[in-house]
Amino acid sequence: MGLLSGLRVVELAMWVAGPLAGRILASQGAEVISLIPHSAPGASWRGISVEGVPSLSMLPDYMSNKRCISLDLHVPEARQVLARLLETSDVLFDNLSVDAPEKFGFTWEQLQTINPRLVVLRMPGIALSGPYRSFASFGVTLQAFAGINGASGDHETTPIGPSAALPDYVAATHAAMAIVAAVLQRNRTGRGVFVELSQFEASVNLLGVPLMEQALTGTPPPLLGNRHASAAPHGVFRCRDERLADGLLHDTWCAVAVMTDQQWASLCEAAGWEDLLRDGSLSSVEGRKAQEDMIERRLSEWTRTHTAWDVFALLDARKVPVSVVESGVDMLYRDEHLAERQHFDRLTMPGLGELHYHGTPLRYSNAPPPARTPGPLPGDDNDYVLLDVLGMSVDEVADLKRIGAVT
Amino acid sequence: MSALEGVRILELAGDAVAYAGRLLCDLGAEVIKVEPPGGEPMRRAGTTAEKSGGSTSLSFERYHGGKRSVVVDLEDERGRAELLKLVAGCDAVLECFPPGFLAANGLGFQELAARRPRLILASVTPFGQHGPRAHSPGTDIVTLASGHLMHMTGMEDGPPQRLGGEQSLHLPAMYAATGVVFALFGRDTHGAQHLDISMQECIPQFTLEAAAPNCWEMLEVLPGRWGRNRNTATPYGMFECQDGWVGLVALTARHWGALAAWLAEFGEPALLGPQFAFDAPGFRDAGDAVTAILSDFFKLHPKQTLMEEAQKRGIAIMSLSTAADLVESPQLAARGFFQAVDHPTFGHLRFPSSPLRFDGSTAAARIAPGMDEGRQGLLSVPILERA
After folding, report:
1. Do A321 and B137 touch (CB under 8 A)?
2. Looking at residues B26-39, what average pLDDT do you find?
């Protein structure tokens, strides 16, 4: 039984941030009922395209262990079903547009008459107030707007950000945390709570210290890229290219961070640098910073002749901070540590065979998570929700389908 | 903010748990930082620490504002007794020592849970509590590299890049704080918990859409870095403009149509050509041509104008913010996002606010505690009252 068993959450969510928030709750046993009509855009189950056809490959990342009902809130009767469901639920959350509650009849005022104990969380891209509140945003644009790209890289490589939408994931974890915290408050006070989570502000918080420095001094901290103000060598170094099973040569890299003089000596030993080890001018971090370009050149020459995993093994054995810059392939097939920790969940996906998914990072000693399911498609749980949870008759359900309230 | 009112959290020494404590503190928990003799090294980190004579720094203020402080030497008999006394009055403990350190000092999960039934212990380490790499050292760049995020950051033909701002301190901490809140919810049914947070395992949760394992398993394709811009016919990424950069996403026919019409309105009709119609055959291969037209257009205009004009037309353009832009942002100003607080060393400090508002209010910013400031109240009482 998961930690959150007994908690019923209704999710109105699209794209990534909302569905992942629900997934985090479901991963620990909350009953998350996702309302997704078949016509919804931005459905998170649309995975990798195979010959132009989107597959279900990403379904488990966002939908595992949820329930899904294909309710179309454009139809008034569907909104009545939602209201009935909310009477028996603990939480409603959404990442729909700012004006969705007015449009679909779930404003805070309306919700309080339906269920005064309901916890409600909204997660607008920008915020529910302020001059930019209705600005359209996506993860990659929000990432730039929140300052991440401008604070990353060095003078040559900035601006740069992840080729993935960091703000979505940041918002999802905040939402999952806040929802359960609000339920604890509700349990204590007996009254529902309205939570607003600004996705923009959650990502701006990733730069808390640089922004405080900017505000105090009028200048931001320097852009260091992969280097470090008080450590050297510190960066990523190209290793030997490797041919993978796709037949292509891939560049591979290792991150190396020499934080202490002892680690410097260990690096010299691993790389066979007797000259550098003997050079007293390099035995302090100040000395190494002064000759950082030279050291980086030597380190690259050495790493280039080894595979990234060999560099890792040589340095890790000597306790020098090191990691292969791990791709998904590295994590899945080469990282023995992740294998021993059984990091990946293995699921049989309909029509796709066996695939691997990142497991939940929440590992409790005394709360085994529910067995992972591939996750439902829209409508898979219509009968469960309408008949079992709401106690409707088969005829009532047929009527809802006839009028398009349930697609 | 009082969601976690009455919850008391002990945050043991170290940077890796500081943001988890920040998040829980902002949710209304009472958070006590247990500092090592001499104080947290973070108090002396960064150029701003000099101003305070090493007693606090901007980083320390950021992560420890509003917390309490007590100095305890965990490697000393008296200190261990003090810690156990503190634990008896707490609901959760956050720690980031190397695996096994606490147990070796008689302060393992069993010993702590014996002092406090239903205790939640959250351990945050680079690679988790067990496994062949559990005792390997981790740093910001090493942790980010180990978890797929750096593989996905950088130019297509250049080195992987680490993100600015020490994100390994933040991303795993979000899971640690979430994990503590979940365990608080479930403690009546599940009791004491030891939560094993591996920073490496948290990082890929922040690149899920890059779907690397699936892409490889299904197609033998390895997704990688695409730099600033995906260079696709439907724009996705950053474009240089007159005074900086803007981000743009236009993936749907509606967004694309609005974008093409807007450029025409501003004197660049090229995207209205039939070859760029959203459903035209070959449009999907026109990435280079579209990128060139957009890049030339954007270079004529400043980022603020581009954002405002585009947004008026429902087009998702946002300007790329510098730190100065954010500090002066009209949106953040309207929200009261930066809270000004008087500080004895720094004068005025402006603290970022929590992104969470419960019933309209957010946590009030407070300055960080002086070293050991909470000792009197926390340890001079015979029994620390359970919250």
Report:
1. yes
2. 98
What is the pLDDT averaged over residues B38-66? 94
Would you mind telling me the total number of residues written for chain A in this entry? Answer: 407
- Report which of A318, A301, A299, A221 is spatially closest to residue A255, judged by C-alpha positions: A299
Say if CB A121 and CB A197 are below 8 A apart: yes
Q: Rounded distance, CA A193 to CA A199, Å?
A: 19
Instruction: State the alpha helices, DSSP H only, in A76-231.
Output: 76-87, 100-104, 108-114, 139-145, 166-189, 199-204, 208-217
Confidence of residue B147 (pLDDT cuts 50, 70, 90): very high
Q: What is the C-alpha to C-alpha distance for residues A138 and B237, in angstroms, rounded to an integer? A: 10
Helices (H), A272-354: 274-278, 285-290, 292-303, 308-316, 328-329, 336-340
Cβ contact A150–B323 (<8 Å): yes
Taken in order A131, A136, A137, A142, is the CA torsion positive or negative?
A: negative
Q: What is the pLDDT of residues B232-242, one digit of tens each?
A: 999 999 999 99
Torsion of Cα atoms, B207 then B210 then B215 then B221, to 10°: -120
Cβ burial of A6 (10 Å; 0-12, 13-18, 19+) is middle
Sorting pLDDT into bands at 50, 70 and 90, what band is A46?
Answer: confident
ipTM of the complex: 0.98
Q: Which chain B positions have a beta carbon within 8 Å of A355's beta carbon?
A: 213-214, 217-218
Residues of A numbered 284-323 whose beta carbons fall under 8 angstroms of chain B's beta carbons: which are they? 316, 319-323
The pTM of the whole model exceeds 0.95: yes
Terminal CA-CA length for chain A: 32
Is residue B214 within 8 Å of residue B223, measured between CB atoms?
A: no
Render pLDDT for A86-114 as a digit per residue (tens, 0 to 9).
999 999 999 999 999 999 999 999 999 99
CB-based contacts of B78: which residues, under 8 Å, 6+ apart?
none
